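pls ignore typos typing on phone
2-acetamido-2-deoxy-beta-D-glucopyranose + seq
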Amino acid sequence: MEARLIAVVLFVCSVCHFTEAQLPAPTALNTTITRTTCGSSKLCVSTPGNCDPSGNSSCFFSSTQLSSTVLTVEISGSTSGYVALGLIATTNLTQPLNQGVSAVFVCGNNNNSFFFQTATQNGAQLTPVNTSTINITSIQGSVMANQSLVQCTFNITFNSTFTQLPFNVTILNGTTNGTALGNLTTIFSSGPLDLANPKSNIPVLNITRDGCGSSKLCFSNASGCNPAGNSSCFFSSVQTKSQNFSFELSGTKAGYVALGLMKQNSTVVFICGNDTTGGNFFFQTAIKNGTSLTLTNVTTVYNNQGVVSKNQTLIQCIFNTTTTLNFSTKADDTKYQVTIMSGTTNGTQLGDPAVLYDSKTAIDLSDPTALNPSSSNAVSLCTNVLAVMLSALTLRLL
Ligand SMILES: *[C@@H]1O[C@H](CO)[C@@H](O)[C@H](O)[C@H]1NC(C)=O
Ligand SMILES: *[C@@H]1O[C@H](CO)[C@@H](O)[C@H](O)[C@H]1NC(C)=O
Ligand SMILES: *[C@@H]1O[C@H](CO)[C@@H](O)[C@H](O)[C@H]1NC(C)=O
Ligand SMILES: *[C@@H]1O[C@H](CO)[C@@H](O)[C@H](O)[C@H]1NC(C)=O
Ligand SMILES: *[C@@H]1O[C@H](CO)[C@@H](O)[C@H](O)[C@H]1NC(C)=O
Ligand SMILES: *[C@@H]1O[C@H](CO)[C@@H](O)[C@H](O)[C@H]1NC(C)=O
Ligand SMILES: *[C@@H]1O[C@H](CO)[C@@H](O)[C@H](O)[C@H]1NC(C)=O
Ligand SMILES: *[C@@H]1O[C@H](CO)[C@@H](O)[C@H](O)[C@H]1NC(C)=O
Ligand SMILES: *[C@@H]1O[C@H](CO)[C@@H](O)[C@H](O)[C@H]1NC(C)=O
Ligand SMILES: *[C@@H]1O[C@H](CO)[C@@H](O)[C@H](O)[C@H]1NC(C)=O
Ligand SMILES: *[C@@H]1O[C@H](CO)[C@@H](O)[C@H](O)[C@H]1NC(C)=O
Ligand SMILES: *[C@@H]1O[C@H](CO)[C@@H](O)[C@H](O)[C@H]1NC(C)=O
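k done
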């Protein structure tokens, strides 16, 4: 009996050795994978966005960091099965990294022990392959938290040095049965991303006053507010093209900055916030009911991007919507009362908004000149000018 067991063990080990000849044996991961240095020294992707791989809630995460010829990869997933990183080269770097070449790196749970595999993706299936052309070294991995978390890290050594590594990136997951991989689900997909650039997936928004009053309609709580400058102010702009609004929003306040569009007593609110759990951007839409916000899915919003920058003091975002918002009746009805608001965040929970700017009347968002001094809205501007003059006068009197 004992002899038979030994024979089986020997057999299994020789099989392992044979099929994984190209891969070094994994060692236990002796650190935990975290978001620390994401965006500064490593490129991070995750689902949900900005989730914490060392936290308690579900998180699928991967990072890459290039140092000379070595790419260090981290993968983490809240799974009892496997989590995998899929990479597809989007340009010809050099052999074996030609355009379209794809590789999947799988970190999995084999009955409470860690295993690593390289694979190719065929539809919903992962086929283990020997990627002998990719030099993978120092694989570390662990199955943790009562088989609910798999984490691993490894190095890929290139023969040439690269300054850019543009790849399409996916995160995949699935079940395991031993080391057999169940069908995959793609839970994250983006690209091309430059694996060598930690900021590759952090947008550069470049929100400026350029074009205010001529090509875009601008709103702000302080005259001359320059969203690209260092002043502490709130700014928003809109450009209308073929029944689509393109909005910019910028504000300097901890928490969130929001744009409200009101029609018939209903205010749709677009929120660009700072998730205080990680200091990262999030986007949400809501309806303003009285003084508070009720999260609502505004289905006409698409393509939002944002960033919390300047040492965490500035929140900026851009987003598009069709001109037909939830409540508007006609696609060409572009008149809304505009407010800029801000409030606090706790995680992604929103405090009540304070109104910082209010257009008071409905403004035609499709007219970049709608608030120019010469236009029909001059009255409100004159009032502002008068107020400024009055306060100046008051100051002089003092
Ligand atoms: C972690 O593992 C690496 C590589 O195996 C080793 O060099 C290092 O000393 C280990 N660190 C600790 C704290 O065990
Ligand atoms: C990478 O992704 C982009 C956007 O999804 C896609 O257009 C492109 O074809 C992909 N490239 C490759 C090589 O798969
Ligand atoms: C990339 O390399 C492959 C194989 O060498 C070649 O067939 C392909 O045309 C190249 N693509 C580009 C965009 O250079
Ligand atoms: C896995 O995917 C294959 C082909 O994509 C499909 O035929 C098969 O039914 C799937 N298996 C499961 C368990 O969903
Ligand atoms: C790197 O170079 C060595 C020796 O020249 C060669 O054996 C190996 O296949 C090359 N590796 C890659 C990934 O191109
Ligand atoms: C992986 O590569 C990084 C960067 O070159 C290096 O610091 C680290 O020591 C390597 N890991 C191991 C275990 O060799
Ligand atoms: C793989 O990379 C290691 C350094 O990380 C290097 O020593 C070794 O020669 C490389 N092997 C091949 C086949 O390129
Ligand atoms: C894959 O990830 C999704 C969440 O994105 C989760 O609901 C699902 O249970 C995961 N599946 C496995 C096998 O880990
Ligand atoms: C796991 O694999 C074993 C043997 O390969 C098979 O007998 C068993 O039915 C599989 N279990 C599941 C849940 O698919
Ligand atoms: C920002 O946009 C302005 C035009 O609005 C352009 O002149 C400038 O070059 C852009 N700057 C960057 C860094 O993209
Ligand atoms: C964002 O949240 C972080 C905490 O994670 C905080 O340090 C930072 O000041 C906040 N910034 C803004 C603009 O809300
Ligand atoms: C908007 O609200 C005001 C006061 O709450 C009310 O007098 C007015 O009729 C409402 N208008 C519409 C279009 O619902």
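The helical segments are 2-19, 378-397. The pocket of 2-acetamido-2-deoxy-beta-D-glucopyranose (ligand 2) is lined by residues 88, 90, 99-100, 168, 191-192 (CB under 6 Å). more later
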